[in-house]
Give the backbone structure.
Amino acid sequence: MKWIIRLSLLVLLFLCGWLLLKLAPFWTPVLTTVKAVFIPFFIAVFITYLLHPLVEKLHHWGVPRTLAILFIYVLFFGGIGYGVYKGIPYMVLQIRELVSNIPAISKTYRNWLLEVDHHTSRLPRSIHLRIEDYIQSAEHYLEKSAANVIGSIKKIVDYFFVLIIIPFLVFYFLKDIDVIKRACWYITPRKWRKEGIHLLKDIDRSLGGYIRGQLFVGSLLGAAAVLALWLAGMPYPIILGIIIAITDVIPYFGPILGAVPVIFIAFTISVKMVLIVAGIMLVLQFIEGNILGPLIVGKSLHIHPALIILALLAGGEIGGILGLILAVPVFSILKVIVVHIRDHRLTAKIDKMP
């Protein structure tokens, strides 16, 4: 009888999923509207989470709360606004230059492969065909990626009036954070309040410093990379610096992923440029690994490196680059939740003992 009930539930779930897919033309517009409303909301919540400790620290030093909020608010959004205003035109220009130069870059690598093919003519034909397929796939991937980036920038411009709401939401969230906390306290069931507070505090203790530190270190490293690559004469320094800043958030594999496109483009210029770029990347990673990382990020996660690597492998398989970026934070949150569930059950068993 149990197996019949389970099988019936499985069939019912399958039918519900099938019906949901058939009704996609009806709920897709609703989902689009919900996304348009909630994405700015969640972004504002995340920014509030990043800035709240700074506001509290200034307030603790004797600065009035409203003045502290205005100072951090203007500094954060003013810096971002100025960077976007000055940087996006150059970034779009460099992306277009990169797209137009992709055929020349791929031609350079093709010529090298022809030389390799000439000197390795004894190898099976299938190996040479496979290498050519890899080059064509890489060329198509670069063109598609560059086009997607340009399309994303255009979408950001299209959603400007939606995104402009975010600074206002952040200001009111920072201003009324105590009211929000009290509201969350009252709408939470009484039996979950104590455990919920402990859970959120442990997640913040484990993850908060890590996220803020990684974002700050990534921003510093990206800005230093842009400046160093520009001084070295590398093309597309803004694009490459942004790639380095984003991939630096990924533990262990991030520096390698960030260095690959830089070295790839440097090879098309000269061997001297490859050596210069390699030296720049080594210096940046030395500074990040031995000075900025331990000083700013620290070791707040308390997760074994083997588990972090497994989480990165799973995240990369599920979500690509985005999965690699989110793998460690998500794993850290799941770890805290599992520990709390274990401790809660252990406490319940002890309470039941005579």
